[in-house]
Amino acid sequence: MNPLLYDVRRAFTSKGVLAVMIFIIVFSLAIIPLIGNSQVSLPPPISQVAYSVIDEPNGFNILFYVYNSFGQPLSGVTLNVTSSTPGLFSQVTKSNSSGFAFMVIPYPNQNTTTSYLATLQSSLNSNVVGIQLLPPSSKIGSIELGQPEPPATLGTVADPNNSSRTDIFVFAVGPNFTKPDDSIYYQITAQNLPPSLSNMTPLSRVSNYVSSAYITVPSDANPADFLWIVLATSNGTILISEGSPVQSYLSVAPQLNANELASTFFSSLLGLFVPLMAIIGAYSVYGRDRVTGILESVLVRPVTRRGVLVSRYVSIVAAVTLATVITILIVDLIVWYEIKEALGMTFVLESVGSLFVEIAAFVGIIFIVSQFTKSTGALIGSGIGLFLVLDLLWSLLLALAVTATGVSFGSLSALRLQVDLSFVNPSQFIGLLQILQFRSLSGIPIQPSQFGITPVTLILTGALWVAVPVLLAIRIVRSRD
């Protein structure tokens, strides 16, 4: 029989591999409770582009601010403003290092009293924002040239020092794009009507284009009440006011789609046990034979140590990958049965690819370890140690790393540290992919590229984790042939 086919059959029939395969497939049913607990809706996502338009003699002057989910500036984001009337005007600009971008659109018709409708689209996402542009001759009342419209944008962002908190975000400009001199006020009321400014609580001054502030919502607040936020000038003129249910500022569980449901399962169960299955498979099919001397009897045949290693490496990776694919297909069927929505093909292929990286990396690592251990006990202990350090206890190790560096838990710095350390741990590779897929990190919407997560970096990282361990193992055994 062909040695590779023999090793593949041996890997598939190994008791250790079969046991973990059955365990993972059976536990694919664990996704059902996740589906049942995912029916609460979140508030709509925050905008990531704020703008204000000022009419000047040269045309519509537009100031943009592009920001991430922490309210911090994003640079290099392309903004495209296009007239709803085909061919009337179209302008493109990019945000600078401070997140700002500026654009001038000449008046299509200086004397018209008709407003122009335009669309704003950024390279951040596929969302399209409508913009209404009013030429000077259409102005009435107290609205004059040089006055910003809208004068401010109110929104919510995650607190950079504690991502579990929600901050009030303000983008405001004064006349002729001067810095504002305003104040934020707030009040919680049972009425869905803006309260009188005199009855509201001052929160903070607004003296820069961009600012944020935190409002402490009482724990006993009625979720049905309204939290009103008002931005007013120093003389008490209200520029903008917005009211939202208090429920919007309380923690709620998201309503997940099929891909998000599956990703939660993949990162929790498969992300945990696929490395374990790879370790057990590598031990059962190669490592045990290597340390007990059984492998030496195989070498009396016309085959080299390198040939045996490659053959068994391929067979183990194939067996564990097949078990993973079967599990993913079962999850797809369960999700479709429960919510009548199938997993996307791209999502499935990317998930299989990321788990393949973890499988190949851990099999290769065990192959390396087996070259330096003298007993099965030492090899089993090394495998369990790897599983504990890189997988089961990884969250604890991250917490210790955050504490050691002195950054605050839930802060932007802590999230960056989490991502950086994930790049050096193959068991976290699927987590990095999910950050790219859903543009979310620990439940916080982000721009993955700001954390170094791009298709290119993931492909390079995955290729290294697949190739480096097995190549090192081959290099070690070549010296013994």
Short description:
The chain is an alpha+beta fold. Helices cover 42% and strands 22% of the residues. The chain has three domains: 3-38 and 255-392 and 423-478, no CATH class; 43-149, Immunoglobulin-like; 155-251, Immunoglobulin-like (Sandwich), CATH 2.60.40.
Question: How would you portray this structure in words?
Answer:
This protein has helices at residues 3-13, 15-26, 31-36, 258-292, 294-298, 305-339, 345-370, 376-392, 394-405, 412-422, 429-438, 455-478; strands at 49-56, 59-66, 78-83, 90-94, 100-105, 116-122, 128-133, 152-159, 162-172, 182-189, 201-206, 210-214, 226-233, 238-245, 440-441, 444-445. The two termini are 23 Å apart. It folds into three domains: 3-38 and 255-392 and 423-478, no CATH class; 43-149, Sandwich (Immunoglobulin-like); 155-251, Immunoglobulin-like (Sandwich), CATH 2.60.40. Helix 7 runs antiparallel to helix 11. The strands form five sheets. Strands 4-3-6-7 form a four-stranded antiparallel β-sheet, with no helix packed on it. A four-stranded antiparallel β-sheet has the order 11-10-13-14, with no helix packed on it. The chain has a three-stranded antiparallel β-sheet with strand order 1-2-5, with no helix packed on it. The chain has 481 residues and is an alpha+beta fold.
